Amino acid sequence: MIGIVIPCYNEASRLKVTEFVQFNKEHSKYVLCFVNDGSKDDTLQQLEILKKKCTYPEKIEIVSLTQNSGKAEAVRTGINTLLNMENIQYIGYLDADLSTSLDEYTHVVDYLCNNPEFSIVCGSRIKRMGADISREVYRHYIGRFIATLISIILRLPFYDTQCGAKVFTRNLAENCFSIPFVSKWLFDVEIFLRMKIRYGTGNVQQLIYEYPLQRWIHADGSKIGLKDVFYTPLQLFHISNHYNLFKKYKVESLQTAKHFDKEPI
Predict the structure, then answer these.
(1) Where is the Glycosyltransferase 2-like domain (predicted)?
(2) How far apart, in whole angstroms, are the C-alpha atoms of residue 1 and residue 229?
(3) Is the pLDDT of residue 123 over 60?
(4) What is the SS3 assignment for 80-115?
(5) Fewest CB within 10 A of the end CB: N or C in the chain?
(6) How many structural domains does the chain have?
(7) Which domain covers residue 29, as residue numbers?
(8) How confident is residue 259, by pLDDT bands cut at 50, 70 and 90?
């Protein structure tokens, strides 16, 4: 079984109910976990309607947070909800706007299932001949700037850490989502930093695969605005500082120590 977390914040007007219902009908091995992140519109009601329309409503989980906590905590809550289901072997997340379609996401999942040497497969929005990657020009260049900063911090040759389509083995999900993240939306960076701390820089590159998406279409209504983009370098510095101190001085809570190795890296 495969579990997908779909974080939702004020998605009532653009939630693609029909597409999710059809996917549920055609893919019974998938459990969809929608996390309503304290939405102020009718998102929760739309999710309840979606579940009622599904062929397999038992494969639809709805978690509703009382207040907006940010994408990082919404995803973490959803993943830990799915981890309570013993029959789920792979767990990932996908943006509610379906910029990466559900069908495209199944290719990302299939790649991980068929290549057990990897622990995480990440969708990557590589604009190339033969692929339909549609993104506003200014977002593309801002994205490349951010990606360059992230690659420097991670010291890993990533092209696209921020694509909202990723899938993990159950074991990796248990290790990376056990404790809250520092950032509300740059948590993807933290996932890879946590992997480096646990597995070491040399080993971690062998566990990650960037899957070039065939199709990715930008959807209007992004929750990340220009203001957030301007704060990105500061956020990245804060994240980097947090994890460098964590690694150097071994300042770990008892909860963290259960999931991260204490050996020097």
Answers:
(1) 4-171
(2) 36
(3) yes
(4) HHHHCCCCCCEEEEECCCCCCCHHHHHHHHHHHHHC
(5) C
(6) 1
(7) 2-257
(8) very low
